[in-house]
Amino acid sequence: MNEIRRSIILTGYMGCGKTTVGRELSLRTGKVLADTDEMIVERENCPVPQIFAEKGEPYFRDLETKLLRDLDAGETDMVCSTGGGIVLRRENRELLKKIGFTVWLTASPETISERLASDRERPLLPAGADPERIRVMIKERTEAYKESADLIVRTDGKKPEEIADEILDKLQGQGYCFENSCDQRT
Fold first, then answer.
1. How many Å from the N-terminal Cα to the C-terminal Cα in the chain?
2. What percent of the chain has pLDDT over 70?
3. Which has the minimum average pLDDT: 23-37, 68-82, 105-119?
4. pTM, rounded to two decimals
5. Measured distance CA(163)–CA(135) in Å, rounded
6. CA dist 143 to 21, 63, 65, 104, 109, Å?
């Protein structure tokens, strides 16, 4: 790799803590916090569930790919929380790795079910957070998450601050540069 990847990209199934941990990492590193779903909502002027309902999942996945291409083409130095299915396309997995250091946040289906129990805005979990449905979807996505991950962090039973500490400790241990003052490496 010819340039240092300064962005931290959070992937994982919905409800694993990407947004909450992203906020904490943004505060600690001084990096801008970005959320791919929010960026798509802004671009489309339409909420994600409505995009899924009116235009379908393939259309939404196309929007994710275009967004990642745009992020790859620009200057990136951010903490980015991604949608849970962004890793489903090989091109997206490759783009994520180019844009930043990718951290796969994991949690058990039971933990995710608890976290999403009152959330009815998830287009792929319209009937709520059934642990068995979550288990099946995670199993279907596991290889894609693994392929895109530079680091895997379990979030069950941990506070966002603890997860952020763990991520930053592991990143520093691997020589990751997360401050703007780091030297360019070749």
1. 7
2. 82
3. 105-119
4. 0.86
5. 22
6. 23, 22, 19, 11, 17
